[in-house]
Amino acid sequence: MIHTAVINETSHAPGSGGTCCLNSSNVADSGVPRVENLSYRDFVFDFQRKRRPVIITDATQEWAARAWTPESLKQKVGHRQVEIRTQSGAQSWAFEELIELSAASTNNSVAPYARNIDVRRDLPELWPDLQPRLKYASPDWKSTKLLPKDFVFPNGLEELFLGGQGASFPQLHVDYWGMDGFVSQLYGRKEFILIDPAQTPFLYVDPTDELGSLIGDIDNVDLQQFPLFANVDPIRLILQPGDTLYNPNGVWHTAKMPEFSLTIITAAWHSSNWWKFCGQYRHWGTGSRFRRATVLAWLIAVGALLGVRDRCSNLG
Ligand SMILES: O=C(O)CCC(=O)C(=O)O
Ligand SMILES: [Fe+2]
To answer: Is the pTM of this model over 0.85?
Structure first.
């Protein structure tokens, strides 16, 4: 139960007029609450443990990043070279060029989506603007000193997403490594689409990737090819600047941009998703069988220890 937080139900975004079959419940209430002044404890009990999405409207209040604009970023870090992720691998770009392309992007001529930019590595001048770390994403078990530094991928991962009108995430997916994501919208609006894990049988999971769906643009699904998709009831949210969406691991999702948009996603691991992380390591970890089994046993022990620590200090 929420005690002190202020809650409003979020409305679904209006349908974007695609050719697919999004049914009428998409314009009803989404059931994803918008909350402010949410205590850490209420967050853990009402959302994190229940694996339930929520939009927190004041989580990034202290971030200097709330004042970012395309111009200020160009001035501060335009000279940087950044790595963006694409379906065909990583690409290196001049950051200034990405900003200019996104600013000029239109639905008819869409700029490349500059996504998953590792802020601390590629844009270090911006790192202080993202402090303090979101309290709901702390403590981050993945960053514990009980694991080697940057084990599997960077600790304290915060990624920047820069897109223009018409840009979209390429695929409906579930996040890797069991991570929970905090999607902090900083500039412009972003449409975020969530699909309940219970609807997985209708999503045509990629046979080569259990975390990916064969569905690309959910507004242009070929129902001859993917007839079961007609049963899917996506939750469509419009994230406003200042909103932070808690996206618990396991929820299918994707995103679309109606305009120039800047987003930071903070990755987090804690008592409710650590076992998923362990499961993913078991599947994707590298090295000999012996090494993987040893590391897995260590990860399980670390999880048990941190679970006791957090319970004793009332953190989860
Ligand atoms: O484009 C977005 O905001 C979604 C990003 C996302 O879901 C991801 O990187 O896993
Ligand atoms: Fe994701």
So the answer is: yes
Please compute the mean of the pLDDT values over residues 66-93 and round it to a whole number: 97
Q: Locate tokens 């996040």: which residue? A: 175
Query: What is the 86 CA–ligand 1 centroid distance (Å)?
Result: 12
Whether the predicted pLDDT of 95 surpasses 80:
yes
Domain residue spans of the chain: 6-270
Q: DSSP string of 162-217?
A: EE-TT-B-SS-B--GGG-EEEEEEEES-EEEEEE-GGGGGGS-EETTEEEEES---
Specify the residue with its C-alpha closest to ligand 1, atom 10: 175
What amino acid occupies position 92? S
Q: Does domain 6-270 have CATH number 2.60.120.650?
A: yes
Residue with tokens 């998953």: 116
| 239 or 18, higher pLDDT | 239
CB-neighbour burial class of residue 108 (10 A; exposed 0-12, middle 13-18, buried 19+): exposed
Amino acid found at 287: G
Longest dimension (CA), the chain: 55
Six-digit token pair at 90?
A: 């990583």
Residue 265 CA to ligand 1 centre (angstroms): 8
Which ligand 1 atom sits nearest the alpha carbon of residue 253?
7
Q: How far is the CA of 255 from the centre of ligand 1 (A)?
A: 7
Query: Within 10 A of 136 (CB to CB), how many other CB atoms are there?
Result: 22
